């Protein structure tokens, strides 16, 4: 079995080939063809730390943080869902804040401290949020789960820090991890299996509610 | 995504000069809108100028009692700032009604103002769109237009400006500060930042080539009850069908700006004289001359009803 490392054609290559095939078939049938991507790739160096380990990478400037993590550092816990910031599957923590790793270029994160699901905890040392997701059955297929957990950890920190949300009745008061607050704050993480109610239970438990 | 070269700017003025020198250059800050559009090849910059780390991430008091918000202040940081929460409540309310926590952590104040429309035909590169490809036509007119604009629109484009934050900024009479490639700076009232589409919907702001927003200033607080009410298809993480930013004083006077209805945050100062007479009169004055499509004509009564609810809430 080839490991992901041995698979030479990555997702982008595949898309380019698929695009070229589509262009050829479109030209053959006389319909409007989209031009294939042109322009020479530009490489740039960047260093940042992931889960406490420093990495120095030379990357195509187009590489998102998500692709750097998955394709270059082989940290495949972080998932690619929509690749457009709509689903939250790619959520990681950058300098302690949750971000969509698909919507930031790797080279924009020079010097950053990135934490992925692998850095939160592993099989033998689960992060309390990971343990709570298992206990409360906070997932079915599991694809959105790394993003849900990274987001969940950050949400509880945001509440502790007093950052208000759309459903906070008082903008200036203390914030609490109520079900309504958690549902609103987690709205950037979509779960196709609909595990939402169990995710809320897991988060409320970790928040100490 | 098309290939591009990349540089980190050393100062705002250097960034502006660099952008003026390179015809295909774009600034990148949060990247949450630009990278999305680059992946779809709707935006195809050949050079990116990263303006992060230029010290434009501070919120400072101004000499006249207002606040100066750095262009790079993230939406989360702006919504969480104690002075903003206390004195300009409509602004955090609008910010928190938009996007998701992850996006707000990265999206910047200036980037929010400059984000592109979410018109589905702008996003669909297989369809004509005068904003994306000038002169190609507007697929939205006669198409799926439920989300789109009802006022300030033209025969060339009915796209809306998608920002919530900008609607609150408009109600607060915010001003945009910029630096130009020749190092001069200027102030532009947020009211004048965005252009109406007319025959040139691809020209969205009055900013010149290379001109960089460095800050947004808020005048001294005006008090009143400040409300942002957003009506959308989902309870969270959706763009507005319509929204109302309101600052209502005890005597019934106030300011109203609307989102989701026009190519820019929509405020008609003259119409605000109607506020003491109620939502029906004020909404009619704000939306005089509206040109809705069959699919989005519902937005006119929706504005009136939402404004009515907002005025009732303000009375307490």
From TrEMBL, chain A:
GO terms (molecular function) for this protein are: 2 iron, 2 sulfur cluster binding; metal ion binding; oxidoreductase activity, acting on the aldehyde or oxo group of donors
* CDD domains to which the protein is assigned, alphabetical: fer2 (cd00207)
- Family matches, as Gene3D superfamilies: 3.10.20.30, [2Fe-2S]-binding domain (1.10.150.120)
Q: Which cellular component, as a GO term, is one annotated location?
A: periplasmic space
Q: Which UniProt keywords apply?
A: 2Fe-2S, Iron, Iron-sulfur, Metal-binding, Oxidoreductase
Q: Does the keyword Metal-binding apply?
A: yes
Protein name as annotated: Xanthine dehydrogenase YagT iron-sulfur-binding subunit
UniProtKB/TrEMBL annotation, chain B:
Family matches, as PROSITE patterns: FAD_PCMH
Domain of life assignment: Bacteria
Q: Which residues cross the membrane?
A: none
> Keyword set for this entry?
FAD, Flavoprotein
**GO MF entries:** FAD binding; oxidoreductase activity
Q: Which residues form the FAD-binding PCMH-type domain?
A: 1-223
Name the UniProt record assigns to this protein: Xanthine dehydrogenase YagS FAD-binding subunit
């Amino acid at each position: 079995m080839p490991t992901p490392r041995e698979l030479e054609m990555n997702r982008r290559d595949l898309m380019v080939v698929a695009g070229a095939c589509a262009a050829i078939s479109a030209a053959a049938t006389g319909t409007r063809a989209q031009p294939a991507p042109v322009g020479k790739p530009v490489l740039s160096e960047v260093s940042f730390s992931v889960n406490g380990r420093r990495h120095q990478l030379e990357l195509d400037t187009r590489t998102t943080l998500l692709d750097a993590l998955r394709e270059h550092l082989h940290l495949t816990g972080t998932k690619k869902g929509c690749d457009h910031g709509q689903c939250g599957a790619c959520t990681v923590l950058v300098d302690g804040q949750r971000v969509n790793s698909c919507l930031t270029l790797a080279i924009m994160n020079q010097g950053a401290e990135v934490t992925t699901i692998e850095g939160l905890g592993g099989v033998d040392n689960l992060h309390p949020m990971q343990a709570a997701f298992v206990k409360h059955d906070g997932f079915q297929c599991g694809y959105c789960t790394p993003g849900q957990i990274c987001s969940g950890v950050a949400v509880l920190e945001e509440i502790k820090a007093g950052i208000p949300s759309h459903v906070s009745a008082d903008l200036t008061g203390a914030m609490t991890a109520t079900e309504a607050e958690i549902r609103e704050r987690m709205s950037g993480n979509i779960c196709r299996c609909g595990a939402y109610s169990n995710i809320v239970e897991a988060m409320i438990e970790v928040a100490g509610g | 995504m098309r290939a591009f070269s990349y540089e980190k700017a050393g100062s705002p003025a250097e960034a502006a000069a660099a952008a003026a020198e390179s015809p295909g250059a774009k600034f990148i800050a949060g990247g949450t809108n630009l990278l999305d559009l680059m992946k779809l090849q709707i935006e195809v910059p050949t050079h990116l100028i990263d303006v992060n780390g230029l010290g434009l991430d501070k919120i400072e008091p101004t000499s006249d009692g207002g606040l100066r918000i750095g262009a790079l202040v993230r939406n989360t940081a702006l919504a969480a700032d104690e002075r903003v929460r206390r004195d300009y409540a409509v602004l955090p309310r609008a910010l928190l009604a938009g996007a998701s926590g992850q996006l707000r952590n990265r999206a910047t104040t200036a980037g929010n103002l400059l984000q592109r429309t979410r018109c589905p035909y702008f996003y669909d590169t297989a369809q004509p769109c005068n904003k994306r490809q000038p002169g190609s036509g507007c697929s939205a007119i006669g198409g799926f237009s439920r989300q789109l604009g009802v006022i300030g629109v033209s025969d060339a484009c009915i796209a809306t400006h998608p920002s919530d934050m900008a609607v609150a900024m408009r109600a607060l009479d915010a001003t945009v500060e910029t630096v130009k490639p020749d190092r001069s700076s200027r102030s532009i009232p947020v009211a004048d930042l965005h252009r109406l589409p007319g025959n040139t919907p691809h020209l969205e702001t009055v900013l010149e080539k290379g001109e960089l927003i460095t800050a947004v200033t808020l005048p001294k607080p005006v008090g009143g009850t400040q409300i942002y009410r957003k009506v959308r298809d989902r309870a969270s993480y959706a763009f507005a069908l319509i929204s109302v930013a309101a600052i209502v004083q005890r005597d019934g006077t106030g300011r109203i700006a609307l989102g989701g209805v026009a190519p820019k945050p929509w405020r008609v100062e003259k119409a605000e004289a109607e506020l003491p007479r109620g939502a029906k009169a004020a909404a009619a004055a704000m939306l005089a001359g509206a040109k809705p499509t069959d699919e989005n004509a519902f937005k006119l009564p929706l504005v009136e009803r939402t404004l009515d609810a907002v005025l009732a809430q303000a009375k307490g």
